[in-house]
């Protein structure tokens, strides 16, 4: 498997990397939040820009990115705009999604970008190319907040992300029972056994899915999202608790 090294962080080696989302709505909230989050020593910080009030102002976005870069110094930054149809907070046009992500990629201030698999095809290809040209790693993502797709469908989506050149394919699903959680974990394990040329990230959301957020090293998921100040999805747990469990599992490997 090809590991991905970003600054000092090796994704795909050792325990899953802990990604902490920033959920502030404005500059003041974000700057307070980032200070609290740094104390937790996250491996990667995700800025959930869809929660940010001024996400439609590209100049403000660039300004916030440079403040975050300054504060986070060597901690890798993941830029995410989660679209409304995938459980995010704001609806924007395909055109603006493309413009926003292009701005983030070309800012020279981020390390990773989240690009949704089900984005408009030409935009997606263009964003992939821009990311490559600017040395920004792509986490390609898909979310189902309603249900858990069948195992083959989960694998198919992760494989198509690989085919599209994603550095790290990612899928989040909502289980309605324990079989759904097992479906997600089995799909993750099959990816590792049969198609493990790069790290992937998977999770089952909600309380039923917690095992998937702590068991990545066992089942084959290379990173996990934990709560800093505020959760960004159901079922996330606090970073300190998360680290304790990840370390316990790691020691047993
Ligand atoms: O895609 C993901 C995964 C996530 O939805 C989760 O379930 O932990 C949390 C989001 O912030 C992130 O962008």
Word description of this protein:
- GO terms for molecular function: 3-dehydroquinate dehydratase activity.
- Helix 1 (27-39) runs parallel beside helix 2 (58-72), helix 3 runs parallel beside helix 4 (121-133) and helix 5 packs parallel to helix 6.
- This protein has a single domain, classed as Aldolase class I (TIM Barrel).
- The chain is globular.
- It has nine helices and ten strands.
- Strands 9-8-7-6-5-4-3-10 form an eight-stranded parallel sheet. It has a two-stranded antiparallel sheet with strand order 1-2.
- 42% of the residues lie in helices and 19% in strands.
- The protein has 253 residues and is of the alpha/beta class.
- It binds 1,3,4-trihydroxy-5-OXO-cyclohexanecarboxylic acid.
Q: Keywords, please?
A:
253 residues, alpha/beta, TIM Barrel, two-stranded antiparallel ribbon
List the helices and strands and how they pair.
Blueprint: E1 4-6, E2 9-11, E3 17-22, H1 27-39, E4 44-48, H2 58-72, E5 77-80, H3 94-106, E6 112-116, H4 121-133, E7 137-144, H5 151-163, E8 168-173, H6 178-194, E9 201-204, H7 210-214, H8 216-219, E10 223-225, H9 239-251
Parallel strand pairs: 3-4, 3-10, 4-5, 5-6, 6-7, 7-8, 8-9
Antiparallel strand pairs: 1-2
Helix pairs in contact: 1-2, 3-4, 5-6
InterPro entries: 3-dehydroquinate_DH_AS, Aldolase_TIM, DHquinase_I, Type-I_3-dehydroquinase
Organism: Virgibacillus profundi
Enzyme class: lyase
